[in-house]
Amino acid sequence: MILDRIASPADVHSLDNAQLVELCSQLRESILAYCSREGGHVAPNLATIELTVALHHVFNAPVDKIIFDVSHQTYAHKMLTGRAAAFTDPARASEVSGFSNPRESAFDLFSMGHTSTSVSLACGLAMARDLADQDFRVVAVIGDGALSGGLAFEGLDAAGELNTGLIIIINDNDQSIAENHGGLYQCMAQLRATGGTSPNNPFRALGLDYRYLEQGNDVVELVHALQEVRDTPRPVVLHVHTKKGAGFAPAETNPEAWHHVGPFPLDANAPASAHGSGATYAQITGTYLIDAIQRDPRVVAMSAGTPYIMGFDPQRRAQAGRQFIDVGIAEEHAVTCSAALALAGASPVFGVYGVFLQRAYDQLWHDACLNSAPVTILDFGASVFGTTAETHLSFFDLSMVSNLPNLVVLAPCCQEEYLSMLNWALGQRALPVLIRVPGAGVISRPDLAPAAPVGPSAAAADHATTESATIDWSRPAYQTVRRGERLAILGLGDFLPFAEQIADAVLDELGFSPTVINPRIASAIDMQELDRIAADHAALITLEDGIVEGGWGQQVVAAMAASGMRMKCYGISKAPGFPDRYQPQELLAKHGMSTAGILADVRTMLGL
Amino acid sequence: MILDRIASPADVHSLDNAQLVELCSQLRESILAYCSREGGHVAPNLATIELTVALHHVFNAPVDKIIFDVSHQTYAHKMLTGRAAAFTDPARASEVSGFSNPRESAFDLFSMGHTSTSVSLACGLAMARDLADQDFRVVAVIGDGALSGGLAFEGLDAAGELNTGLIIIINDNDQSIAENHGGLYQCMAQLRATGGTSPNNPFRALGLDYRYLEQGNDVVELVHALQEVRDTPRPVVLHVHTKKGAGFAPAETNPEAWHHVGPFPLDANAPASAHGSGATYAQITGTYLIDAIQRDPRVVAMSAGTPYIMGFDPQRRAQAGRQFIDVGIAEEHAVTCSAALALAGASPVFGVYGVFLQRAYDQLWHDACLNSAPVTILDFGASVFGTTAETHLSFFDLSMVSNLPNLVVLAPCCQEEYLSMLNWALGQRALPVLIRVPGAGVISRPDLAPAAPVGPSAAAADHATTESATIDWSRPAYQTVRRGERLAILGLGDFLPFAEQIADAVLDELGFSPTVINPRIASAIDMQELDRIAADHAALITLEDGIVEGGWGQQVVAAMAASGMRMKCYGISKAPGFPDRYQPQELLAKHGMSTAGILADVRTMLGL
C-alpha cells in the first residue's frame, strides 16, 4: 500500500502520476470503510480526495498554508498528515475530530466548522506573511455551497484588492448540503458549461484572476493546474469541477442524503440517518408547518441551507412550493428577508441551528427586534445533548438571544408546549418570537400543556376555547409543577425533568418537598410568582441547558438579588473555554449539574 | 416655491421636467441650510436629491415600496413625504430623525441605519406581495459603499433567483464614508468608465439584469431610466453614477470630511467636526497606534469603513502605509482576517463601533475566541452618552461580548488605564482582547493608573518597572478605590466616577462611607475580592454604562447569590425596547440610575 508509506505530505511530493492515482484509490477505499463504520461526511470527502492529494503533491505544507473551508472535507488531508491510523484502525477512530483542529496537527491551521471563512483567513495569513517579509504560499479551498455566505463575498472582495500571492480554489460540485440557491449558481453553471469562458464571471467581477479546470477528480490534471498557479504573485481563483460523492454510486446519485450520515453497510443504497430514529422535533415541525402552509398562503418556511433540521425533506419542499425558501448558507439574508416578509403580512418561520443563528445577530437586533417584526425563529440543537464538536456548540444561544429587546424567547419543555407556542407565534402579529426547540429529545407531558391545535388559523377559530389558544405566551407566567417548601427549583425548557429529578432527590435525601417551576419563557421574568416564592422559600436555584453567563438564570437571580434569598444558577460556564467532543452527563457534572453536586449546594444554602 | 406645494409624493407625479429641476434646486438649498443649522449627513443627501425626486415622480409611494439602504440619505424623501417643515422651520427640526422611521411616516418602511440590508428587505417585500397576490413595485436604493457588506451580496444573490419584479438602484458615488475598498470597486470604476459595458459585471454575475445611467444627478435622465425599469417582471439593477456632495463645492471636493458633520457656516470650506473638540479617544488611539506601528512592523490598524473613530484621518492612514487596512463595511471579514493575522504573528487592532461589531458576532465566537487568536478589538461609542439614535445604540455590547469564552473584556475608567490595557493587549499572544473605550468622555486619573508607556515593545523594555508593564489585565483584580463599610459600589469603566458620586451622596445622606470598586474587567469575576466584601458588607450594587440584562453586573450578582448579601444591578433594561433620541441623564434616571433613586434602594436594602 502506498498509503502505508505516507507519514507526512513530504512523502507525497515525490510520487509519480501512477502512484498519485493509486494513492487516491486507496484513500477512497479507506474513507468509505471508515464512514461505513463510524458515519461522517461521506459525499464532501469523496469529492475532494484527488484535490487534496494534488495539493499535498504540489505545495509544501505546513510551510505553505492550506485552509479548507468548513473543514468537513479534510479526511484525506488528515490521512496524508500523519493521522491515517485514526481512519484505518477502528480502535483509534476517536483520535481525530471531524474538522480541522490545530491541537490535533500542525497541518490544521484553525479550529473551524462554519462555512465561508477560508478566504478571509487566507487574506490574513498572506498579509501577515508580507508584513514579516516571509515567503510561503497560501491556499484557500472553498466549496460552491459556501460561496452563498456573505463572508465569502467579503473575503473575495478583499482578496481582489490584495496585491500579493494568494490561491483560492473553488471546489465546485454543484451542491450545497441541499441544492444550491441564488443567482450566483446560474452563473456557476454557465461557467462549468462553457469551460470557464462564460462572460458572467463572479470572480473576475471582483478583480480576481481566474482559471477553470473541468477534471476536478483527475489528480494528474489537478497537479498540472496547481503547478501553474503555485507561484502566482497575485490573487488567483482556480475553479475546479468536482463530483460530490465521487466513486460511491449511491452518494453520486443522491449527494444530499449522503452529505452527513450515520454508519451504513457498504452495499447500502440509501443511508441510515445520522440523527437516530423515533419522533424528532424535525418531523413534528415539518408536519405542523406543511399543514399550516396548506391552510394559509402567507406561511413561509425558511431555511439557510439546512432544511432537514425543520423536517423539510425533498418531498415536503415540493409540497410547500413557493412557501418554502432555502436561501443557501446565508443566515443574515434569511433573518432580514424574514423581517420584511413579516412586516408585509406574511408569517415566516426560520429554522436554524443555534450556532449558525450567531451569523445573523445584527439582523436579529436591527431588522427583526428594532422593527418588532413578527418572525418566528426555531432554534434547533441548542442543548448540551446537541452536537458536541467545539465548532458546532449551539448552547451559547441563550446569552445571545435572551437579552435582545422585543424578542420573545420561549423554552417549551415538551412537544405539547412546543406546538402550542409555535401555533401562537404564527398567529400573533406583534413581536419576533424565538422558540428554543428542546434539544434533549421529544417528551410528551399532557399534564403540563394541552394537546396542540392543528394550525395557526385554527387558533383563532376552531380551538378558541382551549387553553393554548388563549395563552399569550409573551406574558411571563411561570407554571408551578409542584408546590413545595423552602427551596424553589426552576428548570428551563428541556431541563424541567431534571428539576423534577432534583426535587425527588431532595425529598429522598433531605426530607422535604421543594417547589418546581416550569418558566416557559426565557426573555422575561414573572415577578409576581418570584415574589410569592421569596415570601416563603429560603433558597432558589435555576437550571438551564446552556451557557450560564448572560443566560436566563442570571436574570432571574438578578431580579431577586435584593431579597436576601440564597440562590444559585446552574448552566455551562464559559470559564474553561469551549468543550469539545464531550460526554453530556460528564460535562454537566463538571459544571456542578449532578444530583450529588446540587444536593451539596442546597445543604449549604439552607444551612443543613 | 414648488416645494411649498408638495404635501405628498402625489404632488410630484404631475410636475413637468422644468418643475422637477426647480424642485431639486429648492430641495438642495433647503437641505444645505438645514445641515448648516443642525449638522447632519451633508454629502450623502446632496448626492441623492435628483434620484429621490425622480423616484417619487415615477413610482407611487407608499403603495409602491421604496427602501433606502442605511437611510442616512433620506432628507429629500422626508421633505417630499409631508415632513418638509422639519427641514425648513428651525423650531421643528426635532420632529424628524436622521434615519428612516415608520413611527414618523407611512412612507418610511423600516427603522434602519445599518448598511447593506435593503436588497434583502426588498426581496422579502416582493415575496410577501406575490404570496398575497398583490400588485405593487418594490425598489431598493443602495450605495456603492454598502455593497462591500456581505449581506448586500446575500441579498443580490437571492434577488438573482427571484423570478418577480424588483428594482435595485445602485447609487454609485465612488465613495464609502471614507474611500471604497475591495476588488469590486475596480470593476465598478470600469463600469462607470465604459458606460456600463465593461465585461466584469458583478451584477450580471449574480444573474441580474443590468442597466447603466451616467447622469445620476440629472433628474430628467433619471426619470427616463426609472420609467424604463418601472414595470419590469423580473429583478433588474439600475446603476446610476451620482456625485457625493453634489451642488456644494467643498463637499464635492472632500466627501469624506463632509459625510457627517456638525453645524457649519455656508461659506465654510472645511466642516466643523460633528464630534466636538478637545481630547478624544480617537486622537489618543490614533497617536498611540501610529507610534506602535512605527516601532513594530507587525502592528496593523484595521477598520471596517470608519477609520476616523480610531483617529485614522487621511494623514495617519498615509503614515501607516500597509499597516493600516480599511476593509470597507465588512466587519465579518475584519474579525476573521484579524484572527488569522494574529495567529500568524501579527498584532491587529480592530476599531469598531459597538453596534457594528454585532455584525461579526459569529466571527468573534468562531474565528477569534474558539481559536484564542490574540486580536485586539477597540469597542467605541459603547455608552448611553454615545449616539442616541435607536438604530445606532452601542450600549448593548456588554451582553454580546462579556459572555464569550476566552475573550478578555476590559473596561478602563480613564485614559491612563486605557493606554495601559491597550499596550498590554498588543504585547500578549494568548487571548483575544476587547477594550470598551470609555464613552462618557476622556478623564485622567493618575491616582488609579500610572501614566502609560509609549509603545508595545516598550512594555517589555523601557517600562518594565512600571505597574502597567507588569499588570496582566486578563486576571481579574478589582481595584479598591475607597475602603468603606456596609455597602460596596462597583462602577464599571466610565461609570466609576458615578460610583464615587453615589458614595459621596451616601456619606452625606446616610452618614457612612461605602466601599468603591473599580472592576477593570467585565469578562471575569474577582471572587477573592467579592468574598472579602461579602464578609463585612451587607449590600452590593453594580453600575454599568450599558444593558443590564446579560451584562456584567448580573454576573457579579450571580456569583454572590448564595451569600445572602442584598444586591442590585444598575444598567439600561431592554424591557421598554429601544430608546430613541433620548437625553442621557433622563434615560439613566428612568432606569433607576439617579442619585435619589439609588439612595432610596440602598435604604431599603440596608433596612434604614
TrEMBL record, chains A, B:
<dbReference type="InterPro" id="IPR005475">
    <property type="entry name" value="Transketolase-like_Pyr-bd"/>
</dbReference>
<comment type="subunit">
    <text>Homodimer.</text>
</comment>
<keyword id="KW-0414">Isoprene biosynthesis</keyword>
<dbReference type="InterPro" id="IPR033248">
    <property type="entry name" value="Transketolase_C"/>
</dbReference>
<dbReference type="InterPro" id="IPR029061">
    <property type="entry name" value="THDP-binding"/>
</dbReference>
<comment type="pathway">
    <text>Metabolic intermediate biosynthesis; 1-deoxy-D-xylulose 5-phosphate biosynthesis; 1-deoxy-D-xylulose 5-phosphate from D-glyceraldehyde 3-phosphate and pyruvate: step 1/1.</text>
</comment>
<keyword id="KW-0479">Metal-binding</keyword>
<dbReference type="InterPro" id="IPR009014">
    <property type="entry name" value="Transketo_C/PFOR_II"/>
</dbReference>
<dbReference type="GO" id="GO:0000287">
    <property type="term" value="F:magnesium ion binding"/>
</dbReference>
<dbReference type="GO" id="GO:0009228">
    <property type="term" value="P:thiamine biosynthetic process"/>
</dbReference>
<feature type="domain" description="Transketolase-like pyrimidine-binding">
    <location>
        <begin position="279"/>
        <end position="444"/>
    </location>
</feature>
<dbReference type="Pfam" id="PF02780">
    <property type="entry name" value="Transketolase_C"/>
</dbReference>
<protein>
    <recommendedName>
        <fullName>1-deoxy-D-xylulose-5-phosphate synthase</fullName>
        <ecNumber>2.2.1.7</ecNumber>
    </recommendedName>
</protein>
<dbReference type="Pfam" id="PF13292">
    <property type="entry name" value="DXP_synthase_N"/>
</dbReference>
<comment type="similarity">
    <text>Belongs to the transketolase family. DXPS subfamily.</text>
</comment>
<dbReference type="GO" id="GO:0008661">
    <property type="term" value="F:1-deoxy-D-xylulose-5-phosphate synthase activity"/>
</dbReference>
<dbReference type="GO" id="GO:0016114">
    <property type="term" value="P:terpenoid biosynthetic process"/>
</dbReference>
<dbReference type="GO" id="GO:0019288">
    <property type="term" value="P:isopentenyl diphosphate biosynthetic process, methylerythritol 4-phosphate pathway"/>
</dbReference>
<dbReference type="Pfam" id="PF02779">
    <property type="entry name" value="Transket_pyr"/>
</dbReference>
<dbReference type="InterPro" id="IPR005477">
    <property type="entry name" value="Dxylulose-5-P_synthase"/>
</dbReference>
<keyword id="KW-0786">Thiamine pyrophosphate</keyword>
<keyword id="KW-0808">Transferase</keyword>
<keyword id="KW-0460">Magnesium</keyword>
<keyword id="KW-0784">Thiamine biosynthesis</keyword>
<dbReference type="GO" id="GO:0005829">
    <property type="term" value="C:cytosol"/>
</dbReference>
